[in-house]
Amino acid sequence: MEVKKRLSIVQPGSLLITIIMLALAIVMIIPFLWMISTSLKTPMEVFKYPIEWIPSNLTWEHHQKVWSGAKSFGTYYWNSLKISIIGMVGATFLSAFAAYGFARIDFKGRNTLFLLYLSMMMIPPQVLFVPKFIMFEWAGIYNTHWALILPGMFTIFGVFMLRQFFLSIPNEISESAFIDGAGHFRIFFRLILPLAKPALATLAIIDFSWQWNDYENALVFLIDEDLYTVPLGLQNFILENTVDYNGMMAAASAGIIPMIIVFAVGQRYIIQGLTNSAVKG
């Protein structure tokens, strides 16, 4: 009886939307499945029709070539992990610090300053390549990983998202702490940050994905191949192996492994963090 009652609650519109979303999810995942399948095939099986999704004989030599070849992906992985993790930690902390100021500290012109800061998102990143190049050359960090790490620590989206989350936290919590003699630093570290764990985790995951997939900045500000990140290493591999489709798919598969792991671990935080950040504006 209870099951029938639950089934009767399901609306036809909701069921239709679920089916459409499921179909779109299948369409989105098919290229990834083909990529992984191709990386485990022989060259003769790549264009075989109908597609053989599960190869009869799994071939691992293409993955071995990616990881143990003359230009191993291990170096690119280490560089990307270094840049992504340091940049992610810095961006999360600095965004939280700035968001607290815009959300919990009342000062003259706060909202105007925030809107001005937010308007900077309209500036295309490509416009800043030349000024950044001049600045990095002057500071001596051009052709170093710091040319990617330092700019990556400042994210307008991160400040906006965390500000929205901080606004959803009741002011009574901060006011009670002020009455007890706590200052802004103590409130920020002892009260606000623990309550903002879902939003912080969401920003950390999103920022990690941005840093990991950043191709343009790495292309412009890195010259030495020993400093290359995974996107640059993948591009180099493709240019050097234009007809090795199996090898290219193996390299692409290696490049998305961290993103799959990060999303699988933190997907619940992404949904919870984005939902809570949209509560109050």
UniProtKB/TrEMBL annotation:
<comment type="similarity">
    <text>Belongs to the binding-protein-dependent transport system permease family.</text>
</comment>
<feature type="transmembrane region" description="Helical">
    <location>
        <begin position="83"/>
        <end position="102"/>
    </location>
</feature>
<dbReference type="GO" id="GO:0005886">
    <property type="term" value="C:plasma membrane"/>
</dbReference>
<protein>
    <submittedName>
        <fullName>Carbohydrate ABC transporter permease</fullName>
    </submittedName>
</protein>
<keyword id="KW-0812">Transmembrane</keyword>
<dbReference type="Pfam" id="PF00528">
    <property type="entry name" value="BPD_transp_1"/>
</dbReference>
<feature type="transmembrane region" description="Helical">
    <location>
        <begin position="146"/>
        <end position="166"/>
    </location>
</feature>
<keyword id="KW-0472">Membrane</keyword>
<dbReference type="InterPro" id="IPR035906">
    <property type="entry name" value="MetI-like_sf"/>
</dbReference>
<feature type="transmembrane region" description="Helical">
    <location>
        <begin position="12"/>
        <end position="36"/>
    </location>
</feature>
<keyword id="KW-0813">Transport</keyword>
<keyword id="KW-1133">Transmembrane helix</keyword>
<feature type="transmembrane region" description="Helical">
    <location>
        <begin position="114"/>
        <end position="134"/>
    </location>
</feature>
<feature type="domain" description="ABC transmembrane type-1">
    <location>
        <begin position="77"/>
        <end position="266"/>
    </location>
</feature>
<feature type="transmembrane region" description="Helical">
    <location>
        <begin position="245"/>
        <end position="265"/>
    </location>
</feature>
<dbReference type="GO" id="GO:0055085">
    <property type="term" value="P:transmembrane transport"/>
</dbReference>
<feature type="transmembrane region" description="Helical">
    <location>
        <begin position="187"/>
        <end position="206"/>
    </location>
</feature>
<keyword id="KW-1003">Cell membrane</keyword>
<dbReference type="InterPro" id="IPR000515">
    <property type="entry name" value="MetI-like"/>
</dbReference>
